[in-house]
Design brief:
Oligomer: homodimer
CATH topology of the largest domain in chain A: Rossmann fold
Radius of gyration of chain A: 20 Å
Largest interface: A-B, 37 and 37 residues
Distance between the termini of chain A: 50 Å
Strand order of the largest sheet of chain A: 1-11-8-7-5-6
Structural class of chain A: alpha/beta
Largest sheet of chain A: 6 strands, parallel
Order of helices and strands of chain A: EHEHEHEHHHEHEHEEEEHEH
CATH architecture of the largest domain in chain A: 3-Layer(aba) Sandwich
Strand content of chain A: 15-25%
CATH class of the largest domain in chain A: Alpha Beta
CATH superfamily of the largest domain in chain A: NAD(P)-binding Rossmann-like Domain
Number of domains of chain A: 2
Helix content of chain A: 25-40%
Number of strands of chain A: 11
Chain lengths: 301, 301
């Protein structure tokens, strides 16, 4: 029997709807909408797409989205000065720094300049550190928070469950593992140096895959009935039946978005699985909106 | 064959000796020794013992140990004011807040008042959060850092190893898991809700036990040849051959200090194991000294 598809778009819509009263309260109290400042340096095509979709999502719930653009050759000092100014600006509730930054700029140093209370991506050390404590954090990294919310949305009990996270990044893998551990799931973090990935993933009742590698996890890796959360967003060529790339009318390779999980084989084994697109992605955006509202509530209180 | 005993006291002595040039450099530059302020509220007997041993260890390497004592009924505001004053005092390099605090005081709020740069126990969110990043943190929680140094001292390669941490506390279990994961060990965090502890621990090539429960892990839990780091420090009654408590000349139960691992049975299976006492304990104190020196170096630079 094919796995249940965990509808990220449905959860995202619910989370957005749930924000309405808080946004109305902020408007009433502050005389303005919550405001998210988004800082984009350069013209990375992926980042531009993200900015557009964030702007649309903000508009949809009544959050002001303020895009601050810098050319790619902006010196680090100018970017730092702008981040400090946004940090001090009482009209700005949340600050989002689009990644990747140009290589000439130390991304971590810049991220750490964002005041913790306005760090709506939850990427500063000060916010990440709160994940060690059981009470959790207010501003959790959006993708990690999305994976966690989707586990709960799928109806899983984390407490006591065998959980495996594939991917150990600072902003997704390790934070998800902390959230699971705080809820008393037994969590293993796997990564590129894990000797026998399948031995771990086939134990997992809850499997979160955040490795950034298309098709890394197949049906063979999955315990029958497991809940699978696919965090990957990979652009890959569309192939024909012979495995050759399909071309569009201009002769360019046709591309599609897939996760880290091979959906077709995984769906036949898993109990529930997030599709890509339509799984973690929309919930990640909803988490950004939720974090912005939480930051505004603290800021305006 | 009995396991090799991992000599924490030898490692601690080495770490302390290695601090000498840095301490001399600080003295030359600042005209004073590095200074650790230790704040003790109330008269918890365990804390008093710790303070004495910390004072002795500081004296041994040439760090000034400044014990600041408050009565148990000190209001939170007074403690907060003192922590703020120590934070601002240029003559203080590190601040240590003895736990437990009286119940009337929120321990976490107080810990978070310590400036990250003087947080030599590595317990503030700002320092803990740095553990998510591969470059690691300068001020790592002392016990977690001790467990990690002992793994390396035992000659283990963490990269690729199957590792299990028993205990998921914010200051020991989760930080150790982060350190292991950053070094590309495959790490599982177990705890009180883990359904089959033995199934996990018997997989572990590196096993760190930080559960705070005497004798939780026995030889049966250990993979033959594994490296076992016992973080537990538990006071238990000495028993006679019949399992009855032994009494001292005043009729009080004789007590001894044991770890979370049943040493006798574990020693017969493990490849290497830390004794208690004499394993993690002395290295934890050495980590406190190292953190104080690191904080002073930053502070005085």
């Amino acid at each position: 029997m094919a796995a249940t598809r965990i509808a990220g778009d449905v959860l995202a819509a619910r989370i957005k709807a749930d924000l309405a009263p808080a946004i109305a309260a902020i408007r009433a109290k502050a005389g303005r909408a919550p405001c998210l400042a988004s800082v984009l340096v350069g013209d990375d095509p992926g980042s531009i797409v993200y900015c557009r979709s964030q702007a649309k999502a903000c508009e949809g719930v009544g959050i002001t989205y303020d895009l601050v653009q810098f050319p790619a050759d902006t010196p680090a000092t100018a970017l730092a000065a702008k981040l400090d100014a946004l940090g001090a600006d009482p009209a700005v509730d949340g600050i989002l720094l689009q990644m990747p930054l140009p290589r000439s700029i130390n991304a971590r140093d810049m991220a750490e300049r964002i005041p913790a209370a306005k760090d709506v991506e939850g990427i500063t050390s000060a916010n990440l550190g709160k994940l060690f404590f059981y009470e959790g954090a207010a501003l959790i990294p959006c993708t990690a928070a999305a994976a966690y919310e989707l586990i709960k949305f799928a109806g899983c009990t984390i407490k006591g469950a065998e959980c495996v996270v594939v991917g150990h990044s600072p902003i997704v893998g390790k934070p998800v593992a902390c959230l699971i551990t705080n809820d008393l799931g037994t969590c293993t973090i796997c990564h590129i140096e894990t000797r026998d990935l399948k031995a771990h993933t086939t134990r997992a009742e809850i499997l979160v895959v955040a490795a950034g590698k298309a098709g890394l996890v197949t049906g063979d890796h999955i315990r029958p009935g497991a809940t699978v959360i696919d965090v990957g967003i990979n652009r890959v060529p569309c192939l024909d039946e012979k495995g050759q790339p399909l071309l569009d009318e201009k002769g360019r390779k046709k591309m599609k978005t897939v996760g880290d999980v091979d959906f077709a084989s995984a769906e036949a084994v898993a109990g529930a699985i997030t599709p890509v697109p339509g799984g973690v992605g929309p919930v990640t955006v909803a988490m950004l909106l939720r974090n912005t509202v939480r930051a505004a509530e603290t800021h305006i209180a």
